[in-house]
Amino acid sequence: MANYTDLKYFCTLVDCGSYTLAAQQLIVTQPTISTAVKRLAREYNDPLVTQKNRKSSLHLTSTGKLLYQKGQYLLKEIDAFDRDIKHSSERKIRIAFSGEAGGVYMPPIVHKFYQAGILSLLEEHYERSAASFKNLETGKIDVAIYSWNFPINDPNYFIHTLDKTELVIIAHPNHPLAKYDSVSAKDLAQERFIARSPGYLTRESLDILGHKGNFTPNIIYTSKTMELMIDLVRENMGIAFVMDSSLKSNHNLKVIHLKNTEKMYAYMQIAMRKSFVPNQYQQRGIEILRNFKGHLLSR
């Protein structure tokens, strides 16, 4: 059975593609990496990695590829296991509040913890939805409340959908598009967009919209916040693709829907690791989160 350190060195070598880079990342010497790989090669009676010369690319044997795939999975499980054991005695629940869902559902969740007298359990994290799910996977957080452009369904987590909101175009009332109630994706090919940076739901959705309309969105400004993006549309600087739920009743902007056949939606979900076993202190908070209802499920 491969030991943890050798497996980590091997997988890092494959990820980096060179002994030099792997050694630098792990802060060890190159011979240390080489010795670990040789130990694994002897154990599995296979060279695992081949290289024509010191300057050529690394190539994995079929056994090496399998060891890498299973090794990655095992290392993640071990790291998550280690974090969970260390976390088991803490009186904290680590929750990532991400994107629109994080902003919408943080206040009621904080209030429920306050009512239950367990507000001190909350350890809030603020990050993008993609990052929060990654940290959920690696055990850095226990619960993620996030938004994404399709409902995530993964058997490794307890997941339920809190809400579903339509993605819409917003424009200044004087913008040429404002005379329409609905448009198709191809009608937007020549428009100028205000958008968030890559990794945010609305930006990912805008890229999908461009694909539907067979165009690359002309993004003239990348906004750091949703509020600024809406304000710039209010200044008639361009249009934006946003979640309908992020608009307030007094936004004074024209909301334009996509044609029925092209409508897109954002899903707000809460996900909890099935591997997370709460201690006696965390249990009350976990029960609140498991039974928490969003707008969709409470209507």
Write the layout of secondary structure elements.
Elements lengths: L3 H13 L2 H8 L3 H15 L4 E2 L8 E2 L1 H26 L5 E5 L1 H17 L6 E5 L2 H9 L5 E6 L8 E15 L10 E2 L8 E5 L4 H13 L4 E6 L2 H9 L5 E4 L10 E5 L6 E9 L9 H8 L4 H4 L1
Parallel strand pairs: 3-4, 3-5, 7-11, 8-9
Antiparallel strand pairs: 1-2, 5-12, 6-10, 6-11, 6-12
Helix pairs in contact: 1-2, 1-3, 1-4, 2-3
Explain this structure to me?
With 299 residues, the chain is of the alpha/beta class. It folds into two domains: 4-87, Arc Repressor Mutant, subunit A; 91-299, D-Maltodextrin-Binding Protein, domain 2, CATH 3.40.190. Helix content is 41%, strand content 22%. The protein has helices at residues 4-16, 19-26, 30-44, 62-87, 99-115, 129-137, 201-213, 226-234, 283-290, 295-298, and strands at residues 49-50, 59-60, 93-97, 122-126, 143-148, 157-171, 182-183, 192-196, 218-223, 240-243, 254-258, 265-273. Strands 3, 4, 5, 6, 7, 10, 11 and 12 form an eight-stranded mixed sheet that branches. It has a two-stranded antiparallel ribbon with strand order 1-2. Strand 1 (49-50) and strand 2 (59-60) form a beta hairpin. Helix 1 crosses helix 4 (62-87). The model has no long low-confidence stretch (mean pLDDT 89). Belongs to the LysR transcriptional regulatory family. Pfam families: HTH_1, LysR_substrate. Keywords: DNA-binding, Transcription, Transcription regulation.
